[in-house]
From TrEMBL:
EC assignment: 5.4.3.8
GO molecular function: glutamate-1-semialdehyde 2,1-aminomutase activity
Residue numbers bearing the N6-(pyridoxal phosphate)lysine modification: K265
Keyword Isomerase: yes
Organism, scientific name: Frischella japonica
Subunit structure: Homodimer.
Protein name: Glutamate-1-semialdehyde 2,1-aminomutase
Upper lineage: Bacteria, Pseudomonadati, Pseudomonadota, Gammaproteobacteria, Orbales
PROSITE patterns: AA_TRANSFER_CLASS_3
Length: 426
């Protein structure tokens, strides 16, 4: 029995599924989840000492590669000054200044501890500011696990959603409308039906929770227009895309100005951080300047702020994003080429340092329905082949992949060679 297997066995007795977040349990690919011990650069090492090229990067934050010495040194220094004060610090101001400079649509920001808190709070402030209750989300987009966001679409775009999880009362999701991603018409229909009731649209600008599906340019800009027309707010959830698809996030990549932005992952450099921010007139409505309540014991924690500030400073150069885009293109093009050589129906999507791999004969994957047509059984086989060869992708056909600055030709070529052997074996 491997150490991972032993740990997993022990873990299942004391933690549901042996994990603290479901997708880690390998339910999407079968088999025993790996338990990890350490990571460095582009590599992650399991409890048995085997190394893997890591395309998960803690689900996004580790864009510099693991264990970057500047970040760990800064964190070590901060630790010696005390772990938490629950009171304002200089590093919070520095990080807020840096983020608002890089993302000008964020005039004011508030730090929280996770992406879930960021989206939850952004929606509260959107509702408080507009005085409206309904929100629109898109099927296949994930915005954390707040009750009213755990909603799947009904049979048609215009139906109210149903709770995706037991424990979420139907009443709690009755204000959530679910539309089709990349389908502006479905959104227009909602607004036509409820012209004065919709507080906000929340959208992943490059969906990364149904594998990787970029928004169409016209779709996102259409959302902006329809929000303006009806007096609703546009919330862009950049928890995953912020500082990943471009320095200024997807809003820079698509040249679109949201009213509110949600952030997480990279802005914490691997520590638990989220944030939401946007127009000053909206953010000023937040307690203590305004009546809309939001708070957090550990919000703006100095260690987390230090990790985030050091990480963002190292990323503050558009040249880095060209490098990340080149690396991701190299990986996707290489995989496409070997799939084609062996006649395997295969499609990739990528924006900046975020990518998706699909075993499908659909020509372009641009909707939730397209994603659902991909061959999950083949993905599972691919997954375990790659894992055996020391390549760690997200253990699900419905999660995006992440490139880091620590990846190089060596790791990418190893990945493509391994995929080539798999495709050849089919
Ligand atoms: N929004 C998006 C777009 C996400 O990808 C995620 C997490 N993957 C969240 C929100 C929730 O973030 P967290 O897991 O930190 O609560």
């Amino acid at each position: 029995m491997t150490k991972s297997e032993l740990l997993y066995q022990q873990a299942t007795h004391v933690m549901p599924g042996g994990v603290n977040s479901p997708v880690r349990a390998f339910n999407g690919v079968g088999g025993t989840p790996l338990f990890f011990d350490k990571a460095n650069g582009a590599y992650i090492y399991d409890a048995d000492g085997k190394s893997y090229i890591d395309y998960v990067g803690s689900w996004g934050p580790m864009i510099l590669g693991h264990n970057h010495s500047d970040v760990t040194n800064a964190v070590c220094q901060a630790i010696h000054k005390g772990l938490s004060y629950g009171a304002p610090t200089e590093i919070e101001v520095k990080l807020a200044n840096l983020i608002t400079n890089i993302m000008p649509s964020i005039e004011m920001i508030r730090m929280v501890n996770s992406g879930t808190e960021a989206t939850m709070s952004a929606i509260r402030i959107a509702r408080g500011f507009t005085g409206r209750d309904k929100i629109i989300k898109f099927e296949g987009c994930y915005h954390g696990h707040a009750d009213y966001l755990l909603v799947k679409a009904g049979s048609g775009a215009l139906t109210f959603g149903h709770p995706t999880s037991p424990g979420v009362p139907s009443d709690f999701v009755k204000h959530t409308l679910v539309c089709d991603y990349n389908n502006l018409q479905s959104v227009k229909q909602c607004f036509a039906q409820y012209p004065d009731e919709i507080a906000a649209i929340i959208v992943e600008p490059v969906a990364g929770n149904m594998n990787c599906v970029p928004a169409k340019h016209d779709f996102l800009h259409g959302l902006r227009k329809v929000c303006d027309q009806y007096g609703a707010l546009l919330i862009i959830d950049e928890v995953m895309t912020g500082f990943r698809v471009a320095l200024g996030g997807a809003q820079a990549y698509y040249d679109i100005v949201p009213d509110l932005t949600c952030l997480g992952k990279i802005i914490g450099g691997g520590m638990p951080v989220g944030a939401f921010g946007g127009r000053a007139d909206i953010m000023q409505q937040l307690s203590p300047t305004g009546p809309i309540y939001q708070a957090g014991t550990l919000s703006g924690n100095p260690i987390a702020m230090t990790a985030g500030f050091t990480t963002l400073n190292l990323l503050n150069d558009v040249g880095i994003y060209q490098q990340l885009d080149d690396l991701t293109s190299q990986l996707c093009n290489g995989l496409l080429e070997v799939a084609k050589k062996h006649n395997i129906p295969f499609v990739t999507n990528h924006v900046g340092a975020m990518f998706g791999l699909f075993f499908t004969s659909v020509e372009e994957v641009s909707s939730y329905a397209d994603v659902m047509k991909s061959n999950v059984e083949l993905f599972k086989k691919f997954y375990h082949h790659m894992l055996g060869d020391g390549v760690y992708f997200a253990p699900s056909a419905f999660e995006a992949g992440f490139m880091s600055l620590a990846h190089s030709d060596r790791e990418i070529n190893h990945t493509i060679d391994s995929a080539n052997r798999f495709f050849k074996s089919l």
